[in-house]
Design goal:
homodimer; 322 residues; Rossmann fold; 2 domains; 8-stranded mixed beta sheet; 14 helices; 17% strand
């Protein structure tokens, strides 16, 4: 009798797990159906689209795909904050108009020099200290900084539907990676807590590093030069270099993700490409073809014909933030 | 009755698994005892040296640590072979004495120009083709090439005791990585089959790569420039960049591994450093302070005082090859 009850409980638990909605913050639209259909197909041993767990690699861009990126990349806002603090401590480090503008929180002034100015900002704010000290500084900033319009902590501006998608994929024995133009050390400071993605699954842009024994302490130090830009054509290159397998599931939101979407979905067998389209000015932001951040044109124009899912944030997501 | 038999079988299986020797090719010496004591300590929840599975990161050099490296790095022997084939097909590519010597299998001549010559050999033999085509070529070579003195296939010259150590660590929820001066694409061509280490756990030196759509096919292509040398101070830098955690178990065999041993074992909490000392001229090779390959001097001089285990291949291993 006891055994029979026990068996029944197991069966009921199984049924309940199978019928639970893995994506509760996704509306009952085509987008959700297509994702579930794909995942079901690659995980069902009897299916002709079955993929072994070792090859279930999923990669996601970060800015605009897993967390927000308006009014500007959060990592740049961190850089402004750090330069302001460095300038308070030692004003002589503010050697250019770009750095002075950054320290004053004047985004337009700081970005007036384009990529060159951004590089100066990143270099000054992200080098000359150990990786450990840098990541502690990022975590301190995340604790106290608030977003200029939502007043939320930045690491709470992550997309609940994407958190559910990450969990769903991992539950189905996918390995989930971040592949982002953001800095690898910056993202690792919060990726494990925010997304349940461990450091070794975070791929990003990198400054040079050096190994030094400083006063007897073996230390990895962040250096000024750029080692790798993980954007556009750099994304498939970074995935090849660090994962060594072509992902079967890839998510992005801007044309910086086009090359990795193109390369990943061109592989043999079942592949899924997904683009988050920011269409919800009320609950988040609405932007695509214009503006300095998250430009999406080629992906909108060519994505549907390539079979990629364009997620309409306003229509497809019932909830934005956790 | 049936249930009782079933339960007994489970209990017996459990006892047998617990008492099975995880390192049967290691002699009953101090080395084996120290390894098992460390692993037991970090995996026993009740121990004050317990480490959570997420932090059980183990890294190993490849050449001379997991497989042999005499008379010269096997990857260089592959490069000679490939240059010979390229020269047969198109003699005009052999534009220097170094390349002519490589094509003729004249190791001394090929290495007469030192690092500069080696770089030329690697560049010519390892670039100008897709990653996929390169790895297929490496696998073809492994199929047919034989070691000059043992006449064994190169990928069978892996150390059985180290295979057991890798398995033992993984069974205890360690993640095992290769961190080697060898090329990342070269090693991935055999690492999964030889060591059960998947591509995303292989870290190595890298040439530049590019992403190109060639006749409509999205492709990652190997390019001539050196992107990263994963040797000496490059090893902690590479581990930080790709894993983002300081390993708690690290194994090497040469002074090229000194920095990663130093950095890893300087971390907080329990750490284990291991150096394979090649002492067995009869069964493998005997070398340390001299010679062009696998130089080990600082590790022998300072390792014991730093608490690192020096594995005496002749004394500590009952078997070399699988």
């Amino acid at each position: 009798m006891l055994i029979r009850v026990f068996v029944s409980v197991i069966i009921l638990a199984g049924v309940s797990a199978a019928s639970a909605d893995p994506l509760p913050s996704w509306n009952e639209t085509d987008a959700k159906e297509r994702i579930i259909e794909f995942v079901t197909g690659v995980t069902d041993v009897g299916s002709d689209t079955y993929v072994t767990p070792a090859d279930r690699v999923a990669v996601f861009d970060n800015d605009g795909t897993l967390w927000a990126e308006q009014p500007f990349y959060f990592q740049a806002l961190y850089a402004f904050d750090r330069i302001a603090r460095m300038g308070d401590a030692e004003p002589s480090i503010l050697t250019s108009d770009t750095l002075k503008a950054a320290a004053a929180g004047d985004m337009q002034g700081a970005l007036a020099q384009g990529e060159e100015g951004l590089l100066e900002i990143v270099t000054v704010s992200h080098s000359g200290l150990s990786v450990d000290a840098f990541q502690e500084d990022v975590r301190d900033w995340l604790e106290r900084a608030r977003h200029p319009t939502t007043d939320m902590p930045y690491d709470e501006m992550v997309y609940q539907p994407m958190l559910e998608l990450l969990s769903y994929l991992r539950d189905q024995d996918f390995k989930t990676f971040i592949v982002s133009g953001g800095g690898v050390h910056f993202m690792r400071a919060f990726a494990e807590e925010a997304y349940n993605i461990p450091p070794e699954h975070v791929i990003g842009s990198q400054l040079e590093s050096s190994y030094q024994v400083l006063e007897g302490v073996p230390t990895v130090v962040k250096e000024p030069g750029i080692a790798f830009i993980d954007d556009k054509a750099g994304k498939p290159v970074g995935i090849d270099a660090k994962i060594g397998k072509r992902p079967i599931f890839v998510g992005g939101n801007s044309d910086g993700d086009f090359a990795m979407l193109e390369w990943s979905t061109a592989g043999d067998g079942p592949r899924f490409g997904l683009i988050v389209h920011h269409t919800d000015a009320d609950r988040e932001f609405a932007y695509d073809r214009d503006g300095p951040v998250g430009k999406l044109a080629q992906g909108l124009d060519e994505g549907p014909d390539r079979g990629w899912l364009i997620v309409d944030m306003k229509e497809d997501w019932s909830q934005i933030w956790p």
